[in-house]
Amino acid sequence: MSESNLNPEEPKKSLNFIEVAVENDLKEGKNDGRVQTRFPPEPNGYLHIGHAKAICIDFGIAKEYGGICNLRFDDTNPVKEDVEYVDSIMDDIKWLGYNWANVYYASDYFPQLWDFAVQMIKDGKAYVDEQSAEEIAKQKGTPTQAGTESPFRNRPVEENLDLFNKMNSGELAEGSMVLRARIDMAAPNMHMRDPIMYRIIHHPHHRTGNKWYAYPMYDFAHGQSDYIEGVTHSLCTLEFDVHRPLYDWFIDQLATGDYRPHQYEFNKLQFTYTLLSKRNLRAMVEENILSGWDDPRMPTIRGFRRRGYTPESIRILMDKIGYTKYDGVNDIGLLEHSIREDLNKIATRVSAVLDPIKLVITNYPEGQTEVMSAQNNPEDENAGNHNITFSRELFIERDDFMEDAPKKYFRLTPGNEVRLKNGYIVKCTGCKKDENGNVAEVYAEYDPLTKSGMPDSGRKVKGTIHWVSTEDCFDAEVRLYDRLFVVENPADDERDFRELLNPDSLKILKGCKMEAYLKNAKEGDKFQFQRTGYFCIDKDSTAGNVIFNRTVSLKDSWAKAKVK
Ligand code: ATP
Ligand code: MG
After folding, report:
1. Which atom of ligand 1 sits closest to the CA of residue 269?
2. Which of 81, 488, 501, 523 is 20 to 30 A from 227, alpha carbon to alpha carbon?
3. Are 463 and 418 in contact (CB under 8 A)?
4. pLDDT tens for residues 411-442?
C-alpha cells in the first residue's frame, strides 16, 4: 500500500520534477530569472501535516533558487474563514522554520478581480446566468457528451454589466445568479464549459466586512492572484491538474506582456491510520472527540508540536518522501521513524517508572544514599551527565519482576541477577505479597563491587533495568498516545470515521515515578524515558501535576503486532 520503502539513511539522489522545471526555466531565462512561489492556505482551519508538505516545497524551492515565497491567505469564502486561523497558520509556518517575504490576502485583490471580470464582460467573455445551480449542473454534459449552452449566454454586454453590479449590491438573494466565463460548452475538459467566476454570498467577510456580496470562485481568484503578485511557479496538489487549462485561459485573457505564472501539481500527502481533511478534523474538535485542534492525536501541526515532534523531523521526512506525479499512501511508521531518529540525537536520557513496584535492597544500609552519575545522551558526547540518587528502596517497573519466569526472562526473578542501570548488579531474593496474592514488594541484594564505572568485575548479567529512588522521585501523570484510527486507510473506508476510531488512542497513567532531575523540566523539553520511549512535558502541566506526553515509543510496536 505504501508508496515507497524509504531508507532514511540514503542521501537524496536526484532533483524532483519541480526542481527540474525550475532549473529549465532558469536556463531559458524565463521571467527574468526570477523564482517566486506562494503558500496559499484557506484560513478555515488549522494546518495539518499535509500542509507541511506544501509548505516545505513552496518555501523550499524559493530558498533553493534564491527567490521568495509569499504567504497568501486564500480568503474567498467568507462563510468558513476566521482570523483565529490566520494567526495559527502564521505561527505554525514559523515553527516549521520558514519565513515569508510578504503576507497577502486574496481579498486584497477583490477590486482588481472585479475590474478583470468587468473587462471580460465588455470583451464578450463573461455573462450573468440566472439559472439555478441545479440547472447549470444539468447542462454541463458528460466527459463524452457536450454540454448545453445557457439561454443567458448571449445577453447584451450592458445587461451583463448591470446585473453584475446588482450581484454585488446586496439586493439579490444568494444563488439567484452567477457570473460565468464564456468559453466552450463542448470543451473536452469539463472545467472549460463556461465555469462560474462569481457567486453571491451574504456573509460578512473577516477582512472586508460587508463591502462585497459577489465573491470570486477559487479558479478565477487563484491564478489572477498569482499573476498580480508575480508568482512564477504556482505549486499545488494533483487534483488541480484538470484545472490548469482554465488557470492558463484566465491569465491569457488578462496578461499584457510575456510573463506568465505556471501551475505545477504534486502528489498529496496521505498517511496510513490518518485522516487529513479539515472537514473531518473540525468535526472531531466540535464533537469533542478530541480535546482541540492541538490534541496530541491530531494530525495538525499543532498536534504534532504538542506531542513533542520537532520541526526538523517533519522537514527531513517531507524531503525524503519527495514530490511526484502519482498519488499514494505513506506508512505512518515513516513519520514515527523520523521523529525517533531526531530525538535519539537530542533527547536527554532519564528514568521514569510508569507502573511502579517497590524494590528493597535488603543488604544496603538503611538511611544511606549515594549520588551516581547518569549520561545524558550516549549519542552526544557534549551532552554531559546529571546526578541520580541510589538508596535502599527503589521503584522499578512491575513487569521487570516475575515470580515464576520462563527460561528467557532476563529481568528480576528469584535467584537471577540484573544490572540496575547506572547502579549496581543486584540478585533477586524473593518478594512479598498482599492478601490478594499480588506482589507488593520485591527483594534483592546488591554487590558493592559492581557499581557502574568500577573496573569490570567479570560478572556477566543479561538484563539491565531502570529504576528511581523512593528518596527523591516524584509522582507525575503520563499520557500514552496511540494511533487515532484502527484501520489502515480511514480516508478510503466507506464507514463513518467515527466508527473507525481507536478506543485506546489515549491512556492516562497516574502516579508514575519520575527521577528528581525531571523536577526542573519545562514545556517543550524532550526526554527519552529509558527502555520506554520519547516524552515531552505537556502544556497542561503544572508544578503540582506534571504531565508527560509520549511522543513515540522506542520501537514500532505495531510492526511487531502485525508479524504475529
Ligand atoms: P483540506 O482539503 O485538507 O482541507 P485544503 O487543500 O482545502 O486542505 P488549503 O488551505 O486550501 O487546504 O491548502 C493550502 C495548500 O496546501 C494548497 O496548496 C494545498 O494544495 C496544500 N495541501 C492541502 N492538503 C495537502 C496534502 N494532504 N498534501 C500536500 N499538500 C496539501
Ligand atoms: Mg481548500
Report:
1. 28
2. 81
3. yes
4. 999 999 999 999 999 999 999 999 999 999 99
